[in-house]
């Protein structure tokens, strides 16, 4: 809704917020990545990197192992590495490593943001101003500098 409230369903009850895909994994992160702590490329994948499943990845979905299956399935719609980690309740570096593996196998497309744009001070200023324009839970606007 325009006033920031969540729309109620037909019965007047507000639907619950979407839940993460599943319970948090009890498996140690290093087991999911075979002990690797960085992608095979050696370059850390930025958390804002957008990933989306390829047609080939969706075709082979049933052949993928657990976490890899969940990552490709969740990437039917583009989302960032950070969103993916939160949604799947996986460690951020695990998602970075597995996403790079899936990219190398042709099952994900990875879109790394332009680093020049992320260091533009005017973009950061607009983000800060936008956040200040959002009222807190009491409806009070944040102070400006």
Write a concise synopsis of the structure shown.
This protein is mainly α and 145 residues long. It has seven helices and three strands.
Low-confidence stretches: 1-6
* Biggest β-sheet description: 3 strands, antiparallel
Structural class: mainly alpha
Beta strands, count = 3
Helix content: 25-40%
From the spread of the alpha carbons, the general shape counts as: elongated
Rg: 19 Å
Strand content: 5-15%
Order of helices and strands: HEHHEHHEHH
Mean pLDDT: 74
Strand order of the largest sheet: 2-1-3
- End-to-end separation in angstroms reads 30 Å
SSE inventory with pairings:
Blueprint: H1 29-32, E1 50-53, H2 55-59, H3 66-74, E2 79-80, H4 81-88, H5 92-104, E3 108-111, H6 115-118, H7 121-132
Antiparallel strand pairs: 1-2, 1-3
Describe the structure.
This protein is mainly alpha-helical and 145 residues long. Helices cover 38% and strands 7% of the residues. The chain has seven helices and three strands. The chain has helices at 29-32, 55-59, 66-74, 81-88, 92-104, 115-118, 121-132; strands at 50-53, 79-80, 108-111. It has a three-stranded antiparallel beta sheet with strand order 2-1-3. α3 packs across α5 (92-104) and α4 (81-88) packs across α5. The radius of gyration is 19 Å and the shape is elongated. The two termini are 30 Å apart. The model is unreliable at 1-6 (pLDDT under 50).
